[in-house]
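Hi F.,

I've been meaning to write this up properly since the lab meeting, where we talked about keeping a consistent format for the predictions we share between groups. The idea is simple: the sequence comes first, exactly as it goes in, then the structure tokens exactly as they come out, then a line or two of notes. No screenshots and no reformatting. I'm using this chain as the first example so we have something concrete to point to.
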Amino acid sequence: MCAARSGDRPVRRPFLLAPLLVLLPAACTAAPGPGADDPAGAKTPAGDRRRPRPGADWQWQLSGRLDTSVDVPVHDIDGFDHSKGTVAKLHRDGRKAICCLSTGAWEDFRPDADDFPASVIGRGNGWEGERRLDIRRTDVLEPLMARRLDMCREKGFDAVEPDDMDGYRDRTGFPLTADDQLRCNRLLARLAHERGMAVGLKNDLDQIPEPVDDFDFAADEQCAPYDECAEPTPFVEADKAVFHVEYELTTDRFCADSRRLELSSLLKKYEPDAWRRAC
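Output, unedited:
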């Protein structure tokens, strides 16, 4: 989910774990940033690309007027909805900007929606206006996703949060396998890195630790109710941040574990506006 719209939202979990109710819902020159001793980012062997470190504070805002007064070093925002000027302002304030965009689902409200052929568009993913993509068709999807990542680069984003990276676990309309998903996710990581941006693994906990070397951080929604919050530990052990969001549990139900596991955890609304409670 990288674009929040009005309406109720389901718990974003695989069909095999919980019913997905149909209610609703990534290279630029690197901007100056913190050094290796700053949790907002550490230099990687790739040069100017930086990865957020465990414990980095952050904000995830996908709806409402962007509140840049939230004093955190990392802001994760919708890549389509925000301009180069917005990213530049975050940089002037000493912040890093993550470009959130869907890479595994077609969204009928995006400006490039008509560029996706019907042959790669499958079943709905539980969010209004969204349908799963046939991630096996990299011949079709690679140039489309490359253009989206070009957009992130041109706007000056430092990193990418690709969404819908675990479709193989859902009913997509396509016979997707774990190998298909891993191949696609690694392709997205390569495309982001080629454009000078860091990139995160979103929600695909079952395949960890295989993708750890390919990604610069991880992001997960609602691991606590499923006792899965230890799954991204290999990222933390590799000195890479794990950005974590809960929607339903109060902070006293998950923050102690989050601190122990060195997760960067937030309580957010299902429509992630500026409101947040951090652990």
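Notes:
Residues 5-39, 42-47 have pLDDT under 50 and may be disordered.
Residues 42-278 form a domain with the TIM Barrel fold (CATH 3.20.20.70).

If this format works for you, I'll send the rest the same way.

G.
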